[in-house]
Structures are given as structure tokens and as C-alpha cells.
Amino acid sequence: MRPLRLLYVALDQTVPGTLGGSVHVQAVAEGLARLGHEVHVATGQGGPWPGRQVTWHRLTPPFGLRALRWARRAAIARLARSIRTDVVMERYYNFGGEGVLAARALGVPAVLEVNAPVVDYPGSPKAWLDRLLLVRPLARWRNRLCRLTDLFVTPSAAILPDWIERGRVLEIEWGADVEAFAPRPANERRAERASAIVCLFAGAFRVWHGAPALARALAGRHEAGDTRFAGLFVGDGPERVATERAAAGVPRVTFAGRVPHANLPTLFARADIGVAPFDVRRHGPLALGFYWSPLKVFEYMAAGLPVVAPALPRLTRLIEHGREGWLYDPDDPSGLERALVALADPDLRGRLGAAARARAVNDYSWSAHCAALDARLRALVGT
Question: Is the pLDDT of residue 123 over 70?
Fold first, then answer.
């Protein structure tokens, strides 16, 4: 089959950017372009655009408000028509739909990337507002988009309406750039065994990402007289102040702030353990289950870092305890601290890190993600 012409609509994302969504959009677009497709991406913010493999189009929502994405429906339809696209792929957002509707208007397949729940979770403010409006316009709009979608691409089918046929769903994980994120040479690691064990947290400092939990664990080790551990926090967000407060007085803790994604591999090379202390109780939508495809975890693994994370049902499938990482009981207040102590053994860290790297290369690379997506897109257009 000939290469496809693809329009990828992500008007609520900034590319390039430092957040997971930005990284995801850029990686998928460039990955599909490397497979030979002609890829056009419509984003709301960004630039200068990365590379020359992808054609980027800036279509900022009115007044810069993501909730007004739908107002760009006509512009998206014109763009799709001008490039004679074979398929339109849209990154789902509550107030989106412009890509799906443009695909229908042109008679080409519509693909919806779903990384956040379409269905309402218990206690959802959105569901409460919808019921208040009596005719439930938000639910009706979401259901209409789902009926018009030919293929759903998602990490978890649990966040889709249960009436959607499984044949229309591609469950697939996000990935890591396994060439950029690579382990340090073994001789460098051996030379650093006598120095501090650097525990890395990278990502958005949101309340459910748990950065303060790592700071408290490091403080606990310090109070116990255990001087082996250091902390490296990369990123920013609402919980940064709380994290800094929890780490106050603990030596060898560094806050690098928000860093361009292209610079992360250099910082990851300074670390010995990658920590992802998610707290699902702090985020209502996670009552539906751990639906994230955790970018930080895949990048830790690609960099050859053993991963420390809570033993949540889906994470236990992504990381095997004692093989690629060390999982702790999320209900145990000392679980994270004890996991760090277990990984003080350099030989154990080396074995877990090597296995994590191999798993990332085989299962969690952007190349693997795009290869699976490519197969489904070709089949979709072919039918």
C-alpha cells in the first residue's frame, strides 16, 4: 500500500513542550513520518517546529482557550481537504471533536486518541453539571463523537463507553525514545558506587504524581542517619512548594525545574533509581483504574534505571517486581522508603536496570507504538 496522508489534530497541545502530551504528539507524528507517511499536525501553540519530517500547522483556539477548540472545525476541514488527507486522527479532549467531524465531512476514516476518560467517573463535576443541564449535552456530544469514530487508540479500554465494539479499539502503551534515553556505560556506574544513590523524580508536580512522597522518604532516610541517598527533582507544577518543604534540610536534594524534553537524557544519566510515586487517591478519574500510560516510567526504563512505584493493578503489568523495578504497597506509609533501602544494593540495581532497559526496547518504545498504529491505520484506510 502507498504511504498515507495523515492529519493529526491536537489543538490543545504545545509542541515542542515539556509535558507528556506534547512529547506524545511530537513522537507519534515523527514516528509515523519515519514510516514513510506524509504527516500534517495541527497544534494550538508551539514552534519553532522540530525537524522537517512533519508539516506543522498552528491553529490556536479562539482567545487561546482549549474549551473553544470546536470553533476551529471549519479550519480543520479546509486543511484536511487541502492536503487530501486519507485519515484524520484527533487527540481527544472534552470540548474537541473538530477532527472527527472534519473526517466525516470528507468521507475519510476518523481516529480518536483517548488518553483521558470519555466516561464519567464517580463524583465527576462534569457529570454533575451535565445532569443539571437536564438534556446532558456533554454526554450526548461525547457519544456522538464515539459513534462517528472508526478507530480508538488508547492505553485502556476502561475509559471508553462500554458499548463500543472491541474491534474498533487499539489498546497501546505510550513509549520512550530508546535511542535518546540510554544507560550509562557500566564502568561509569561502577566508579560511582561509593557516591550518593541519586533518586530521580521527573514530570509534572501534580497532586497525584506524588513528588512530596519521595521528598518525605529522603527526609526519613536522613533522619535515620542513612546518608546514602540523594534526590533529583525535574519539572514543575502545583506540588513543587510542598515537595521543597518536605525536603527542607535534607542534603543533596536538587530541584532542576522545568527542562526541555531534549535535555532530559543528560539529567537521567545522573540518576540511579527512577521513582514514580503515584497516589491514585488524590485524583478522582483514577477511580476508573490506573489508565495512564506513564511516560516517566518508560523513559526511566529506557535509561536503564530500576523503577520504584506503587503496586497498582496496571503498573504491576508494566513493571515486574524484582525484575525491572521494586513495587511497594501504596497503603504502607513506609513502603516507598523501604523500597529505596532495598535498592541500595548496587548489584540489584544493575540487574533490574538492565532488565528494564530490555523491556523498554522490546515493548515500550515509540517505534513499537508507531508500528502498531501504522498497521491499524493501513488496514483502516484499505477497507
Answer: no
